[in-house]
Amino acid sequence: MPRLIPSLLLSSSRGGLVKTERFKAPKYVGDAINAVRILNEKEVDELIVLDIDASVQGRGPDFEIAEQLASECFMPLCYGGGIRSFDDARTLLSLGVEKLALQSAFLDDPTILRKIADHAGEQAVVASIDVGKDWLGRYRLRRRSRGSDDWRQALATAVANGAGEILLTAVHCEGTMNGMDYGLISEASDLVDVPLIANGGAGSLADVQEAVRAGASAVAAGAFFVFYGPHRAVVITYPRYEEVVALWHEAA
Questions:
Q1: For residue 176, what is the DSSP state?
Q2: Superfamily assignment of 3-251 in CATH?
Q3: pTM value?
Q4: Smallest Cα–Cα separation from 248: which of 202, 201, 216?
Q5: How many C-alpha atoms does 194 have within 13 Å on its Cβ side?
């Protein structure tokens, strides 16, 4: 059955969780541990937490907060941000994190994925790939370091080196809640034979359903789970179990 995954953005410089729109203008939305406790009560499938400051600040993972999150989570936790080495990855896994999301490190050296996969299994390795559009509307890989902007090649490289899942974020849709890039999802799902987590733009259960029909194995969302109403009041939400089951049946 497909998974519906809250994706939370952690910002140490702002003291907690934030939400961005197209990766810009982060808005503070609350305490990370409190959010996890609320999501525990709502029996979510899985949780993704990404430290958006780590790579920007040139530092490694925040092991203290990762351990706190892992100890609070009743659901599988995927953690990303600042993982630069196999030692970083091994430490996070030892703290109780089930999955690791890597982006900058794997784009610079794809062999890190294989090292982690050999240690913990491919199911623990999530390659995070951000795709945006250039001024001509062409898809381009978004990355912090210099290198190819070929997002299809990044997909192939990730899978070839042991990624058990792909977290694919459509940057031009992220945080907008105006619908997902179903064309991108469809093309990406045709290119890989591992589960694809589609992220960016979900604003309704209908959007989630359409992403699954386009080929996503799971849908991750942030704004959809933390904002409510036209004024985007901060409220941590998640559909009832019955709603989620009905959603997948309708998408089948």
A1: T
A2: Aldolase class I (3.20.20.70)
A3: 0.95
A4: 216
A5: 21
Contacts of 15 (CB under 8 A, 6+ apart): 28
- Which of 51, 53, 88, 130 does the annotation list as catalytic? 130
Identity (one letter) of the amino acid at 131? V
* Extents of the domains making up the chain: 3-251
Show the beta-strand stretches assigned E in 134-228.
Answer: 139-142, 165-170, 196-199, 218-221, 227-228
- The token pair that represents 172 in the structure block: 């031009």
Tens of pLDDT along 175-199? 999 999 999 999 999 999 999 999 9
Strand bridging mode 47-51 / 24-30: unpaired
Q: Does residue 221 contact residue 247 with C-beta atoms inside 8 Å?
A: no
- Where is pLDDT greater, at 249 or 234? 234
The rounded distance, in Å, linking the Cα atoms of 148 and 140 is 9
109 is known as an active-site residue? no
